[in-house]
Write a structure and sequence with these properties.
The structure is a single chain. It is built from nine helices and 16 strands. With 334 residues, the protein is α/β, with parallel strands linked by helices. The protein has three domains: 147 residues, Rossmann fold; 68 residues, Luciferase, Domain 3 (Luciferase, domain 3, Roll), CATH 2.30.38.10; 96 residues, GMP Synthetase, Chain A, domain 3 (2-Layer Sandwich), CATH 3.30.300. The strands form four sheets. A seven-stranded mixed sheet has the order 2-1-3-4-5-6-7, sandwiched between helices. It has a four-stranded antiparallel sheet with strand order 8-9-10-11. Strands 14-15-16 form a three-stranded mixed sheet. Helix 4 packs across helix 5. GO terms for molecular function: medium-chain fatty acid-CoA ligase activity. Keywords: Ligase. It comes from Rhodococcus wratislaviensis (Tsukamurella wratislaviensis). InterPro entries: AMP-bd_C (IPR025110), AMP-bd_C_sf (IPR045851), AMP-dep_synth/lig_dom (IPR000873), ANL_N_sf (IPR042099).
Length: 334
Amino acid sequence: MLTNDNVSAFVHASAELHYEASSTHLLSLPNYHIGGCVFPLLAVVAGGHVVIVDRFTPASVLDTIEKFRITHINLVPTMINMVIEEQEKRARDVSSMQLVVYGAAPVTASTVERAQRVLGVSLLQEYASTECITITALGPDEHTKDRLKSVGRPFPGVEIQIREVGTGELLPTGRAGEICVRSEQCTQGYWRRPEETLGLNASDGYIRTGDLGFLDADDYLYLTGRVKDMIVTGGENIYPAEVEAVLAQHDQVSDVAVVGVPDERWGELVVAFVVAADGSQLVADELLAWSHSKLAGYRRPRQVVFVDALPRNLTGKIERRVLRESSRPDGVTV
């Protein structure tokens, strides 16, 4: 349940997005997505305009930008890359664009460079949730190689604590745990679902996000996964994002997702689903051997599955449940 006050708090905290009466926002995300719900309001409140496309395609987005002189748009990284590729094929006049706001997944330094070169536009990342709207932001000037590993610093008016999963103990800087948030943007709970609301609310008005992460000394937040996706193997907690970040460094890995699958001996096994780079001859044994020099023993993948593409939802997030349910397909190396 999001109230007018929750949404108003988001609008008033969003000054750095620089919406004005001359702004025109392009809505191409689903309206049921939190980004599709609240971002158009920034243009409306500023006295600007909103243009809606009935369904996202890279061509329709670029054509609409050119026709209506769009200044702002919010996308997910997969969409950004698709728009860049379409612009490289057939250029439109996108000189009106001022800012692309993205979320749901990180972008690479390569995507930042291409967006600036091909689209001539800056990127701003927001880490958000339906329950708390915007939690952190990473501004255009912070899109450096090191900072891109984070999701930015707390949004104005937002307080963040990292707490031990299960106990709620407050954790120090650098320690990963559940991200808990307190702000005027946060919901009071779920409509007619008291048990889920009870699980959502932590102490002192904080909301449990269900996300895992840690804060560094400069208050930049780093995501390490979801509580429900945390892998427990041999009594050790493993955060998929940490393993994925290492495997993604291999020059023949195009995309990767790590999940835990049930195992009688260890509780769960670390399994890596890998999309190999075009033309790659990478095999599972080679990647497993390479990972041994990069990861502590309990964090190393015990199995590798090569897939053509990772399953993603409409906002670009990996559907780990689909990967887990595929269990032990042919081609897994242990």
